[in-house]
Amino acid sequence: MEEIRSFETIQFIVIKIGDEQYGIDIKYIDNIVRMQHITRVPKVAPYLKGVINLRGEVIPVMSIRLKMDLPEDEITKATRIIILKLEQYGMIGVIVDEVKEVVTLDNSQIERVAYDNKEEKTNYINGIGKYEGGLISLLDLNTVTLEKENV
């Protein structure tokens, strides 16, 4: 009997930033850690919060909120640093308000987003996931973690 595999599934970690839910493809996630002391680094972009020492490895940490021109992070018990492993940068930590759950979406539940280059905020998102009646904005990690040119 031939197996019919029509849908590819992708797992996303659902995070909260402000009142919005975002999804991060699980294949990029190395670790999720509680908020900890971040050592400031001078003369870096404001959204780069500094570095942390994780098991002897120094990892830069950035604020997605500041990168997306949202208000400064409010650190709570739910705040986490997600350690991402990206091909072009290696490890980088991103501060998120809360980690909610892991969801599995298939191709039929993901709408790709076409965006206008003038609309800068949307280019942090490469798709919208439909899950249990709600929408999850799927982050384009390459764009989110890209260093902005000095404007």
Describe the structure.
The protein is mainly β and 151 residues long. It contains two helices and eleven strands; from the N terminus they run βββββαββββββα. It has helices spanning 64-67, 141-145, and strands at 9-17, 20-25, 29-34, 48-54, 57-63, 80-86, 90-96, 98-106, 110-112, 125-131, 134-139. The protein has a six-stranded mixed β-sheet. The longest helix is centred in the last third of the chain and has 5 residues, at 141-145. The protein starts with 8 loop residues before the first strand and ends in a 6-residue tail after the last helix. The mean pLDDT is 87.
Q: What keyword list fits this structure?
A:
five-stranded mixed beta sheet, six-stranded mixed beta sheet, 151 residues, 6% helix, mainly beta, globular, 2 helices
- Described by the principal axes of the CA atoms, the overall outline is globular
For the terminal residues, how far apart are their CA atoms?
A: 59 Å
Largest sheet: 6 strands, mixed
Task: Provide mean pLDDT, rounded.
Answer: 87
Radius of gyration over all CA atoms, rounded: 16 Å
Summing up helix and strand content along with how strands pair, one would put the structural category as: mainly beta
Q: From N to C, what is the helix and strand string?
A: EEEEEHEEEEEEH
Secondary structure: number of strands: 11
Unreliable stretches, pLDDT < 50, 5 or more residues? none
Beta-strand proportion: over 45%
Q: Give the count of helical stretches.
A: 2
Helix content: under 10%
- Enumerate the strands of the largest sheet in spatial order, edge to edge or round the barrel: 8-1-2-11-10-9
